[in-house]
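The instructor's notes for this session suggest beginning with a concrete chain rather than abstract definitions. Hand out the sequence below and ask the class to guess, before any prediction is shown, which regions might be ordered.
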Amino acid sequence: MAAKTTSPTPPTPDQITALAADLGRTLTTEQALGLSRYLGLLLQWNQRMNLVGPGDWRTVLTDLVADSWLLADFLDTLPLLKNAPDSPTGNQPKKPLAVDLGAGAGLPGLPLRLFWPQGTYHLVEIRRKRTAFLLQAVAAMGLRRTMVRPERAEQALPALAPVDLCLSRAFLPWPRLLELVRPWLAPKGLVLIMANETPPEPLPEGWSLQAARGYPSGDKNRYFWSLAAAVISR
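After discussion, reveal the predicted structure:
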């Protein structure tokens, strides 16, 4: 008789809070609960499909989820709220529209929304099983203004334009990502690159570096770049 496969035990909010504290992050009760639900679902689904590769929840939190809260800190320094338009009635605060291309297992987007709930956030993913996972996770985590779009990036971008922020993790090589996104960015829209190296000099023609930040991850450094379409003088 074949042995039964047991589901991995999901982490509790208290366990997540303790490990996050070891990593230098203080979580709210809501953030710890959201991460507990996300990691529990991720472990469950990862038994049926390869969402994040082998590893327990502690590895995922340390190597991947921590990037999301650091990214939230970085996004808070960018002029997204300043650049985003007011609502037509003028009664609502500025709300940037963000697009996450090739959302896959929801990294960085799903944990990010626990730490950066600004505006509306669209997770674009064409693969049906991953889309099903994203939909279940968004519901379980209670994420507000976070939508899943089961379509190709080439369909989603024109439908959502103008886009204030575009980001992705390993969806395309970043020079190709810039080419894909450029026609659909808002006039002061930004593209967020998650990289293992510092921004190159020079950047592709028509782009400028708006901000960059490095941070340690294990024995390596990772980087966020914020790129803006360069203003062309006439």
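Then share the key points. The longest helix spans residues 57-75. The two ends are 76 Å apart (CA to CA).
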